[in-house]
Amino acid sequence: MSTKNHETDVAFIQALAELLRENDLTELQVKREYGEDDSLNVRVSRQQPAPIAAAPVAVAAAPAAVPIAAPAAAAPAAAATDDDDPASHPGAVTSPMVGTIYLQAEPGTPPFVSVGAQVNEGDTILIVEAMKTMNHIPAPKSGSVKRILVGDGDTVEYGAPLVIIE
């Protein structure tokens, strides 16, 4: 009987691994109850270093970031430095989570901020939607919005630069 349970458990774990791969999941955890004192706890996970490493590059190189920076092109050397790594800028506001960016509360309404706008600490500057939850991202300090590094509907990773406030 133990061998039969072992074979079915192996088949069950293989099916979970297949489900993980087919649905592009990173982790899956299941508890299987056989009886009062008999159960199987399974956690199947995998790492995906390539997509995680590639996503911030795609966000940082988004074409939407270039036109927004155009009015500040008076100092081309400074703009080139900021384009190289906006996350290292002291006024960079980074994403606290993985999600989808919304620059306005709902379609058809004005955006929360625009380049050159003055914001106060705590003002909502954009929304990151994660798992159907709208997370308002507040300005960490008062100042002027110098650059908006993301576009409406863009997907961002944790730590990706969103806005620069000086």
From TrEMBL:
Residues annotated as domain Lipoyl-binding: 90-166
PROSITE patterns xref list: BIOTIN, BIOTINYL_LIPOYL
Annotated region described as Disordered, given as residue ranges: 73-94
Xref: SUPFAM superfamilies: Single hybrid motif
InterPro entries in UniProt: AcCoA_biotinCC, Biotin_BS, Biotin_Carboxyl_Carrier/Decarb, Biotin_lipoyl, Single_hybrid_motif
One Pfam family matching this protein: Biotin_lipoyl
Purpose: This protein is a component of the acetyl coenzyme A carboxylase complex; first, biotin carboxylase catalyzes the carboxylation of the carrier protein and then the transcarboxylase transfers the carboxyl group to form malonyl-CoA.
PANTHER family cross-referenced by the UniProt entry: OXALOACETATE DECARBOXYLASE ALPHA CHAIN
Protein name: Biotin carboxyl carrier protein of acetyl-CoA carboxylase
